[in-house]
Amino acid sequence: MQPEYLLYALIGVILGTAVGVLPGIGPAMTVALLLPLTYSLEPTASLIMFAGIYYGGMYGGSTTSILLNTPGEAASVITTVDGNAMARAGRGAAALATAAIGSFVAGTIATVALTLVAPTVAKLAVQLGPQDYVALMVVAFLTVAALLGSSPARGLASLAIGLFLGLVGTDTLTGQQRFTFGVPALADGIDVVVVAVGVFAVGEALYVASRMRRGPIPLTPVGRAGMTREDWSRSWRPWLRGTAIGFPIGTIPAGGAEVATFLSYSAERRLSKRKEQFGKGAIEGVAGPEAANNAAAAGVLVPLLTLGLPTSATAAIIIAAFQSYGIRPGPLLFQNESALVWALIASLYVGNVMLLVLNLPLARVWVKLLQIPRPYLYAGILTFAVLGSYSVNALAVDLLLLLALGVLGWLMRRYGYPIAPAIVGLILGPLAEEQLRRALAINQGDPVALVSSPFAIVAYSSIVVLLGVGVYLKRREARASAELAAAQDRHLVGEQR
């Protein structure tokens, strides 16, 4: 409750909402862009601000989905269906209200669940040995690579790129340089911040700018009437169901909040007594997915804080933020950095209240951000990226790396290769190598020891379960998306007739 931390929480939620509103600029890109600029802050203030950006991005994405039929970030795609239909019918204010209140309810409940679950998981995880950590890393690599992308092959290719970048530098055991190509500046490895800013910020800016439509963006009026009594009665159950769907999906690498929102929408459509309204402005189609979106955001923090495992792109960047301060997320985090962790979790409660206050009355203000000329916006992003990356080590070679990685990020986005597995491989690769060597050293080089502990056996067995669950959820998401597209096509044909 110190004024300084409250101020950083406020800055975070404002930045997060702003970037959520702007199409193509998600929380992961913003956190990556601000990483080098927060080195002067203490860790608690920096992470509180990043948490505010993370939650704010989830809130802000619904605004453009409803008023512009353009999702601000990927998890708000499904909100465009009924949210924009409500706005076109003059009920934009009601759609924005149910999205904001649903996000608040789900975010608060999910943060309570995080508060209760995380310490228990951390206490159990403290007992893990090196071979158990290796098993955890393998689970993270395979599940994230297989499930965060259009195909497992592309995900594994992206993971391989990240693992290779993580090998660049000096081997800590032998002192030999690896993949430095005779460049002295690479002896210490490629800084995670430079990679994150290059692949996410520069790559995403180039990709979005190359595809950005020209001309003015058509804006649907917000409208004046808020939620009616009937809207409240139709929204509170979807809020709770969305929370119940989103939180557990966020804790596992199953595709992130996008899967949770599609499943929530599918569930609401199946349970509704007004199925004919879906696709034409059903308020349940906004309330449920937005609640699932924010609940999944809190669920992602459970494996991140307790095991050091990211299940989304933004989580991977937040791990990079921890590491930039010499802090390793994992089981010992709750013991060694308890004040930081609980301040971070407490800031989620405060940030939820701030976001509710900011989003309900200021929707028209946020929409004005869309009037920023696109050349100015992306020129500003690239300028911040260059200045921030140079400030990390003050090396000119970092700027060349930034350019190369930016082009790599653009090519990956252009050809459908997911970015998140590359970042996960870069961050967790060196840790996995360290734990693998330690496990083999303790067991005198016996590889059987890697699969002999009870936890390792359970972890390797869970790969099949997680992949099965992930594939099932992705198929459910694809089926729901196909059914939705078919319903929209039928509705369009009916209007044309």
From TrEMBL:
The keyword DNA-binding does not apply. The chain crosses the membrane at residues 6-35, 47-68, 93-121, 133-150, 156-173, 185-209, 307-327, 339-358, 378-408, 452-473. Residues 6-423 form the DUF112 domain. Keywords: Membrane, Transmembrane, Transmembrane helix. It comes from the Bacteria. InterPro entries: DUF112_TM. This is Tripartite tricarboxylate transporter permease. Pfam families: TctA.
